[in-house]
Amino acid sequence: MNMTKIPLGEWVDSLVDWITVTFAALFSFFTNLIDGLLNIIVDVLSVGPPIVLIIVLALLVGYTSKWPLGIFTVVSLLLVDNLGYWDSTIQTLAIVLVSGFFIILLGIPIGIWCAQNKTVQNIVTPILDFMQTMPAFVYLIPSILFFGIGVVPGIVASFIFAIAPAIRMTNLGIQEVPKDLIEASDAFGSTSSQKLFKVQLPLATPTILAGINQSIMLALSMVVTASLVGAPGLGADVYRAVSQINVGQGFEAGLSIVFIAIILDRITQNIRKPAYEKLVSRKIVLSIVGILIVVAALFNTFTKEDTIKGTGSAIGESTNYKIIGIEPGAGLMAQAKTAMKDYKLDNWTLVEGSSAAMVAELKKAYSKKEPIIITGWSPHWMFASFDLKYLDDPNGTFGGAEEINTLVRKGLKEDAPGAYTILDQFSWDTSDMEKVMVDVSGGMDPKEAADKWIKANTDKVAKWTKGAQAGNGEEIKLVYVAWDTEIASTNVIAKVLEQNGYKVKLSQVEVGPMFAGVANGSVDAMVAAWLPSTHKDYYESYKKDLVNLGPNLKGTKNGIVVPKYVDIDSIEDLK
To answer: What does the UniProt entry say about where the protein is found (predicted)?
Structure first.
């Protein structure tokens, strides 16, 4: 059917832009609120050496779920501390607790409202269906625009994704209260509030707690997703391990998440009927826990010294001493960390996230003419869309100009000689790549943008295909990382291969899997190797198992980037 496409995506973009501008003050308030609450919880959990919190959690788990699980808690958390993930674990616990707090604060009242009003239930139910089935990654996109990069959008996305069970189970628990008990309470002249708090909620408590338990588990499952927008914790460690194909680190961080999940699950599952309630009243235990929290908060308040992050740097104060980065496994991030050491930027933080999150944060700051510092590389469409500049790098930490190379698996020349020839002869300029990137950034489908460029540059494409044997439907697997440069180049070369008789399959992965896939032969090629600096470590690890066909683009550059309206010119100005 040749129908005009409904511009649904454009409508959503316009709506999000309007919301971002109209409710900017409200979003700023919530950002500060959530950040402040998170910092308080982190400070409370961090009071004293790790063994203090380990003992408290072990006693709480043992009290609710019997002593063997208490011993398990001690052993597992000591292992986490030994492996070096204690700080990340504290961050993850804090994120889950903040998400859980807002889930309980809003989920239970909405669930009660649904149980008491059929119209509300009919409205809320499809909304919950939408929230539970929409991919969690989608929530991150507007969250970045509303709340900026960092932990807050991760918590908001976790809250949206995880609140549904709390609402549903609260509604179900109240509706399942026997009707004869409701009738009896009515017969005794109970008011609506008396009936709710004296009859319905007590009887529905097991079901409500089950919903809260499931919501907390869902919130914990979001920690890796939240790391895509800069949320710290074990999720960021897992994401870093995946992007770097560090199996050991991934297992360690993943195991730490499993331990936290078991501990939280057992506490929330058995808090209503603790295993040793006959020995010690639940009220006494909860009171002790509350007192410990208050004491820890007060202790932290009186003992915590005010720290000065910077040394009077105006740009540091205005950007909260943050450099907005991209994926943790990117070579550019390794260069940025080295630069921070070389220039002694000890007070600065390099925020890990994703290239998309970084650009979203740039757009937000640029529209308000606010200072922002990012990691940058060219070619990139953002240099055509925004007035940006590289900061001078007098120490040469980021190196000089780089090249993007084409790498193929061993044996491709024999298996698909025509494809090998095209890949070997593929070469273009930064201006060519930028034309495709600008079209893609403007909303055009990457395949359409590639096709548009190819039709406008038949002479260049003819040089790539000269002397290449036509394919006969053989499948060529190309792999790329979701950088704008690689989306452009991979789609262009894929279209050229298809036009020459090959069936092309594209796979988007992280940097580490991209190199590993070509090296182990599970994919045929990539046109995305930034050498000699950005992807140096990956190339050195896998170069013996792949074939380097040389550069397909020259003159790339990496560095620290700021808008031109920011009044600094060198990385040294960040000191």
So the answer is: Cell membrane; Membrane
Dihedral of the alpha carbons of 255, 260, 264, 267, in degrees to the nearest 10: 90
Which range (184-193, 491-500, 509-518) has the least confidence?
184-193
pTM: predicted TM-score of the whole model, two decimal places: 0.77
Domain 403-554's class? alpha beta
User: Which long-range contacts does 79-82 make (Cβ < 8 Å, 24+ apart)?
Assistant: 79/259, 80/256, 80/259, 81/50, 81/54
- Tell me the longest C-alpha to C-alpha distance in the chain: 94
Helix (H) or strand (E) holding 403: strand 402-409
Burial-class residue 349 by CB neighbours within 10 Å (0-12, 13-18, 19+).
Answer: middle
Angstrom distance (rounded) from CA 560 to CA 452: 32
As a 3-state breakdown, the chain gives helix, strand, coil percent values, each rounded to 5, of: 65, 10, 25
Angle (CA) 116-119-123 rounded to 5° is 115
- 100 burial level (CB within 10 Å; 0-12, 13-18, 19+): buried
| β-strand partners of 323 | 350
What is the architecture of the domain spanning 316-399+563-574? 3-Layer(aba) Sandwich (3.40)
Question: Could you tell me if residue 501 is left (phi over 0), alpha (psi between -120 and 50 degrees) or otherwise beta?
Answer: left
Say how many C-beta atoms besides its own lie within 10 A of residue 155's C-beta: 27
Query: Do you find a cis peptide bond into 202, omega within 30 degrees of 0?
Result: no
Evaluate whether 461 touches 454 at the Cβ level (below 8 Å): yes
Q: pLDDT for 342-360, tens place per residue?
A: 999 988 999 888 888 888 8
CA 325 to chain centre: 12
Which CA distances in Å does 470 have to 289, 421, 455? Answer: 73, 10, 19
Continuous segment of H or E residues that includes residue 527? strand 525-531
SS3 377: strand
Cis omega (within 30 of 0) for bond into 379: yes
The pLDDT tens digits of the residues spanning 165-190 come to 999 999 999 999 998 888 888 888 88
Tokens 């930028």 belong to which residue? 434
Average pLDDT, the chain: 88
